[in-house]
Design brief:
With 692 residues, this protein is mainly α. 61% of the residues lie in helices and 5% in strands.
Length: 692
Amino acid sequence: MADAAAASAGDDGHGTDGGTGTESESADRPLLGTVVGLSLLATALRLLDLGARTAHWDEGRHGYAVLRYGATGVWEYRPILHGPLLAHANELLFYVLGASDAASRLLPALLGGLLPLAAWLFRERLRRSEVVALAALFAVTPALLYYSRFARSDLLVATFAFVTVGLLVRLLDTRDPGYLYAASVSFALAVTSKENALVYLACWLGAGALLVDHRLFWKRWSLVGDGDRRLAAPAWFRDRVDEAVLLFAVLNPVVVALLPGVGRVVAIVLLLVALRCALWVVPDEGEAFPVIVGVGVAALSVLVFVGDAVLATYAVAWLVAGAYVLGVLLRGSDAGRTLSLWRGPVFLSGVVFTVLVAGLYLPRGQGLDAVAGDPLLLADLVEQALFGSWTAASELWFGAVQDQSILPYTTFFLRTLLAGAAVTCVFGVAGFLLDRYRDGGSRDLVAFCGYWGLVSVLVYPIVMYGTGPWHAVHVAVPLAVPAAVALSQVYRWGRDAVTDRRAVPAALAVLVLTGAAGTAVGAAVTTAYLGPTSPDNGLVQTGQPGTDLDPVLAQVSAATDGHDDGPEVLYYGASFAMDDESAADRLPVTDEYGWRNDSYRQLARNEAWYDRLPLPWYFEQQGLETESVRNATALRAALASPPPVIVTRAVHRDTVARELGGGYEQYELQLTVNGTDTVVFVNASTGRESKR
């Protein structure tokens, strides 16, 4: 990523284009101090009263699963619970700190607080004021603050993905292989945080394609070139590749994807033609011919005798032949020498990535324990960790194609961005345009992050599972870079106006900056602290309980203290009843998923367990045993030995009260934002006796 030279120099300073220069240590020190200060501020904001908000359904489900993991020592990847990183981290945190809402959110909070430090990675690509603005945006953008205080993996994957980009930029700036190893670790953590790390790869590819398009066409660079025009391709490549080779290389995968069955015969024929055309690349290398023909004949033979396996064979054949041709292409060139030099670090970073991903996805429990007695089992577990996890994730998250109109999802997503990242989005667009059309041309980093954010806006309404406001995080992070450029530009305009004693431009700059700061900070305070469960909060998802559960949970704890005569909690009604309570010993309580009422959800007789959330998370913390009944007859039988706590929907309040006959306090709850009126009956006498 070679950036065009940053704008004019001055006391604000800027990074160099290709990463060959550095700012003086004396200039870096105050900049680093400012970034660290913003990171400390961000951390404090995220840790402040971290456990105050009642757990969202997702938080409750994940916390409950981690408690069961800690109790049984058994864990394996379940796509509905997302990647393993948060589960393993929280299992350790619960062991050290005890299970609580605050402990479950500690890792996202700390990573969100450290995210402003990532701005330091771009110090040679951005002005000093742009680095500061980027760190400030990461600290106070409402969506980033809210979901840093939330036990979900979205903030984790966004942070690690952005850090990966930053480390790769530093790799280009310094040519230090240490950054490559660090990037492999960072992206491995992204992949183990949540499955949409693969969506990040897609967005990066889309952004990269747009960036290449910009360099080739908007900047009017040419593949073949003439005269003194700057060329997109180096001379050694242009001299050995013609348009025919490139055309066949591009068309072959397309043909395979679009033409199943008989079309694969065409694909293999095209493979042979393409490989024959590759001889044009190496006109004086006659020994290439037998290799290329042999690969093509092998692929054609597999087509005839194996059939369905031809697609995989085709891919392997093309990779083998392509690798051979690439090796000839690069022989004796600067690029070839560079690849040879970096062959070891690239291989080692790949090993580091694979080991980390496999290690975190590796199932825990009896299978892993058995490896000590039979090391050969490790291969099966690694296969399950890598390929089994991918199969499970693709079946749930990538196998279910949305059949709803995309418009409602897009509208919802844009509303969420307005509520959670308005300043970042507005200034992100402005910064992208300002940098694109400035003197000297746009910087690749700013353009790439702008395209990355744009592609994310287009992609997430398509791939989002339900209406999750947390997806705003994945747009706010990349758009923060061009937004920082715009804020820095306004600051410099204002500074120059003050220097020139131009009152009106200076006042306008102050107005814009204070307005942006006030809007971002005001929205952050409102969404994260003043109304974190309010239906009017654009970042609140439906599964967020509208009631503070702490008072009733305190009464439940008092009422169940010392109870040893059967289950402490009884759920009543079809909304909560399960046919097999033991199914909740490990999540998910259901094993099948499918479409129902235009939504992709669990399909099994025990699915009512999910309607209890987040209560199971809190009851499990207290070590309470639960059971459930479906109808009044079963309720009457269960109340022969009344449990201290009964949970039911409000529509069954009178039925339960009549059967109990008194002695229980009633507490009204909303287990979602609204529409889930629930009543908890707590044995008042038991509670009072416990208190005494």
